[in-house]
Amino acid sequence: MITVPQTEYKKQLSTMRSWLDGKEFHLALKAFEFAQEFHNGIRKDGISPEFSHQMFIANYAMSILPGLMFKEETLSAIFLHDICEDYSVTFDEIDNNFGKSIGSAVRLLTKKLPGEIIDPTEKEERMFRYYQNLSSNPIASITKGLDRAHNILTMNTAGWTIDKQKEYLVEALNCALPMLKKARRTFTEQRLAYENVKSLIIIQAQHIKFTLEIMKQLEDRIEPTSDSIKM
Q: For every residue of the chain, which 3-state class applies, written as one string?
């Protein structure tokens, strides 16, 4: 199930708190509680809590935790990765509360700040630099790979157009995958984690690509023509 009902979400939160506490990942638990205070809305599917996005990524990261170089820091970055982009939380606040390592990862993961206007002519160059920078950080690169995997998995419930979904799919294949490949060669200690995330994106992308092709065919088939319009 892609959508996350409130009852299931509450169970996930309780389980995550207990697990982080049991592992003595107190910094990650602090990030978990901090981010929840801001991400308290509903996702675009109209059902899932906003923070269920971070929960999905964190739960998946837990399954590859033995392969991560910075386990607690990566979980912390996952909880915090959207907070400076979506809310008026400064990078200094992240540094002061969670340290420079997590702060640096959150900086790299932030595409733009609230209210920032991006020149359309610079979009392609910014995207290239964004993913290049992500590949230089072992925490941010894993986080972004999982973030993109969940984005493409859930975008069909967000009310997006087929063209926008295709754009996200292209970004996943042409930007996120090369980023993971470059990071894998740099941070060989977490090679298996990168391979896992790469496979997750590829499997989901194949399914989404097929679904979008079917949706496009149906859209073209039911598009009204002048001959079919009756007065």
A: CCCCCHHHHHHHHHHHHHHHHHCCCHHHHHHHHHHHHHCCCECCCCCCECCHHHHHHHHHHHHCHHHCCCHHHHHHHHHHCCHHHHCCCCHHHHHHHHCHHHHHHHHHHCCCCCCCCCCHHHHHHHHHHHHHHHCCCHHHHHHHHHHHHHHHHHHHHCCCCHHHHHHHHHHHHHHHHHHHHHHHHHCHHHHHHHHHHHHHHHHHHHHHHHHHHHHHHHHHHHCCCCCCCCC
Query: What are the boundaries of each domain within the chain?
Result: 6-219
How do residues 87-111 score in pLDDT, each as one tens digit?
Answer: 989 999 999 999 999 999 999 999 9
pTM: 0.89
* Domain 6-219: homologous superfamily in CATH: Hypothetical protein af1432 (1.10.3210.10)
